[in-house]
Fold this protein.
Amino acid sequence: MNNSKKMPSVALGTWSWGVGAVGGNEVFGNHLEETELKPVFETAMEHGLNLWDTAVVYGMSASERILGAFAKMYPREQLLLSTKFTPQIAGNGADPVAEMCQGSLERLGTDYIDIYWIHNPADVERWTPFLAPLVQSGKVKQVGVSNHNLEQIKRAEDILSKEGVHIAAVQNHYSLLYRSSEQGGILDYCKEHGITFFSYMVLEQGALSGKYTTQNPMPDGSQRAETYNPILPQLENLTGVMRGIGAKYGVDVPQIAIAWAIAKGTTPIIGVTKPSHVEAAAQAATLKLTAEEMGMLEQLAAEAGVDTRGAWENPMA
């Protein structure tokens, strides 16, 4: 990415920050506000992890508001802020993308966004052209597309390049358990074109953290419990080996999942709700897995035979 600011090898996600529709309380079973989250933000900045990813729809602006409150405490040039235009909640004005972007700028307390995304490919032809004026005006430094397949990414690039703007980043669900973007040629395309690939759900909402087992399932009442508790038995071989590899390096299971994603040439977005999550992400960024370890993890992940594609996702391959 052609950005004067240096990109960290791990980005931090704020989907589970704040309470509201599609927010931390509904999706993750969390109820986290500024008081609990401030130490998380401060720990991250101390570790040089300064790339924060959010979206209007995370808690219907709750996440952006909390992030904006913390961002004010630091010089703007020390931060990389990433947020998204979500077509499903677009207004009916002449430029719904600029309108939603303006709301994000206000909540984040900034006059520019480092990476602005189209959250999903509801209508590539309709929404992509609106990104170019945002870059040209300086309100957005770089643009990306999220949950797009290869054909949609190429089409978005085609539309924008006519205006002298290029796709700088792609953000898709990618983990040991879900490698659809790799199978669909997206990772290779990004590598060839100097596009940063951000992998989200690298820990599969905690299913690859080693914290949850059949004896200790995810708390009932959240969307992630419904999705992942039924498949926990199939993940035990994989997480067991991840624990063993982690012991060799003096780290735990999550760092192995994160280190794997970095080794695949992606920038993982790690959801953080505790200072310890930040420290684990920083540690994972320094890990180097061997080719043998990578192969073993991929084989066990394939043998688990699970499909963790989200309800919002189209297949990538």
